[in-house]
Structure formats: structure tokens, C-alpha cells
Amino acid sequence: MSEIVLGVTGSIAAYKAAELVRVFVKAGHEVSVVMTAGATKFVTPLTFQTLSRRPVTTGLFEPDVVWEPNHISLAQRANVLVVAPCTANVIAKLAVGIADDALTATALACRAPLVVAPAMNDAMFEHPATQANIATLRSRGATIVEPASGELACGTTGKGRLAAIEDIAKAVLEVLAKTGDTTQ
Ligand SMILES: Cc1cc2nc3c(=O)[nH]c(=O)nc-3n(C[C@H](O)[C@H](O)[C@H](O)COP(=O)(O)O)c2cc1C
């Protein structure tokens, strides 16, 4: 059994992460969800709390039940950190090392492998800044689950749709298998 820390960010695709939690739990993994403030505008923490059967982290400065800051204990427990969907904003923060919320602070404190599934408008995805940030993450060993092409929520058509949940789950299980955890 592995500990999967799932970061959910402020994308219109945030609701799809609920299905990802269900798939991970069904596969026998422990899932801890960390949401950005943006993500909570799209889906409530209660959805993830119920599906993961665990408390959901939404803030960096919430009092913790144990002395250790939550973002540090989450980072240390994680066998893999998955950010799905990942906004252009969080991709940029991860690339630079900004740690100004619970998710990005957890990511900076985390030595486990990182899997990022971007989801955004096609122009945001194609922007040289986003592409450079993705290249930076890749060069550090992160797994990028490429977004799909198709109709986007903003009404345009292009590359930016969150990858299929099965593809994200497969990428995460492959990363876990490589790091020695073969739970399927
Ligand atoms: C309706 C709506 C949908 C959005 N969808 C996305 C998206 O899919 N991807 C993205 O990168 N930003 C999207 N944004 C913009 C982000 O919510 C915004 O950049 C926010 O600051 C992200 O915060 P976070 O990265 O901390 O979650 C959307 C904004 C709105 C209002």
C-alpha cells in the first residue's frame, strides 16, 4: 500500500480529480488530498474527504492535530506526489520553487517522485513560459501526463484538456512500481 498525496488546483477540471481519488482508493492506496484555494472554488473539500476517507488539507496555517506542520508530514509520508489537474500557475510555482500555499509548500518539502497532469486553455498551455516551466519539471525527473487535444471548457479547441483519468492513474502506478512499490 502506498501513500499518494494528490494536489488539486483551480482548474475547471478539478471535479475530475474526484474520480482519480476513487480509482486510487479502489487500488488499495492511501490518498491524502491537498487543495489550493482556487480548487475549493470548483469542488468542496467534503467531496475529497468523503472519497479519500481522510481529512483534506486546504490551508498552510491551519492548526494541526499533531505538533508537526501538516505540509511537512504529508511530504514525508508521500510515496508519490500527484498534481491533477495542475494549473499553469502551480506549474510555474513548482518550477521556481515557490511555496506560498499548502500544496506548493508540500511539494517543495517532498523528496518523492512528482507526477503533474496539466489542464488549461490551449494558449496558456502553449505559452513559452508554461512550456519552459514544464521542461524544467521534466528535467528534474517529474512525470508529465500530457493534456489531450479537443474542445476546451473555455469554448476553444486545442491542447489543454486534462488527460484521461486512466492515463493519469497508469502513470502514477508506473512511478510507484519503479520506486519499488508494486501495489496495483
Ligand atoms: C472558470 C475558470 C476556470 C479556470 N480553469 C483553469 C484551468 O483549467 N487551468 C488553469 O491553469 N487555470 C484556470 N483558471 C485560472 C486559475 O483558476 C487561476 O490562475 C488561479 O489563480 C489558480 O490558482 P491555483 O493555481 O493556486 O489553484 C480558471 C479560472 C476560472 C475562473
Detailed description of the structure:
This protein has helices at 16-26, 45-52, 70-77, 88-96, 102-108, 122-126, 128-139, 165-178, and strands spanning 3-8, 30-35, 80-86, 114-118, 143-144, 148-151, 157-161. It is α/β, with parallel strands linked by helices and 184 residues long. The protein has a single domain, classed as 3-Layer(aba) Sandwich (Rossmann fold). Strands 2-1-3-4-5 form a 5-stranded parallel sheet, with helices on both faces. It has a two-stranded antiparallel ribbon with strand order 6-7. β6 (148-151) and β7 (157-161) form a beta hairpin. The protein is globular, with a radius of gyration of 15 Å. The structure holds flavin mononucleotide (FMN).
Q: What's the count of strands?
A: 7
Number of helical regions: 8
Structural class: alpha/beta
For the sheet with most strands, the description reads: 5 strands, parallel
Small molecules held by this entry? flavin mononucleotide
CATH superfamily grouping: Flavin prenyltransferase-like
Across the major sheet, the strand order is: 2-1-3-4-5
CATH topology, what is it called?
Rossmann fold
Percent of sequence in beta strands? 15-25%
Q: Give the CATH level 1 class.
A: Alpha Beta
**Which architecture does the CATH hierarchy give at level 2?**
3-Layer(aba) Sandwich
Spans of at least 5 consecutive residues whose pLDDT stays below 50 are none
Number of domains: 1
Give average pLDDT, whole number: 93
Oligomer: single chain
C-alpha Rg, in Å? 15 Å
Overall form: globular
